[in-house]
Amino acid sequence: MERWSKASPRSVAQWAAGLKVEQGRGEILSQAVLLWANTDLESAIVFAKSEESDIARSALLLGLAHESLQYDARRGLELAAELSPSVDRDEFLEKGAMEWALTGADQVVAWVKQISDLALRDRLLASAAIGMAESQS
Fold it and tell me: Which has the closest alpha carbon to 53: 77, 20, 8?
């Protein structure tokens, strides 16, 4: 399975989508989609968005947002911001805003100011401020 996942994560993801939950569907699907993202992030996102289960779709997209954050903070945050509000999503956004502020303070502040949820916007601005302060020390 590991060799197949590395050689063709798209095929594994498509195969895993047909499994039942008790067959390990979620874990296999998540691993395959994350491996796929390493070679073609946008296709992995399109695939994850096509997942029928809201819970599985959110988990896949949040995993892809985490993966994206490592090399494209804006894309990672944008992807997470599209998800329905949840503790996991909001914690990720706060962490992501803080990390992005370490290298792109002006960009993260401009992005955060576009968030319509005022309470979330305030938390993200606070997180960005912490990241900016850490980058100064």
Answer: 20
- The reported pTM is 0.81
Give me the residue label for tokens 């050689």: 7
Sign of dihedral through CA atoms 82, 107, 67, 136?
A: negative
Nearest residue to 67 via CA among 9, 135, 126, 134: 9
Place of tokens 């985490």: 66
**N- to C-terminal Cα distance for the chain?**
45
The pLDDT tens digits for 22-75 are: 556 667 778 888 888 888 899 999 989 998 888 889 999 999 999 999 889 999
Written in H, E and C, the secondary structure of 84-133 is: CCCHHHHHHHHHHHHHHHCCCHHHHHHHHCCCCCHHHHHHHHHHHHHHHH
Q: What is the pLDDT of residues 41-55, one digit of tens each?
A: 999 999 899 988 888
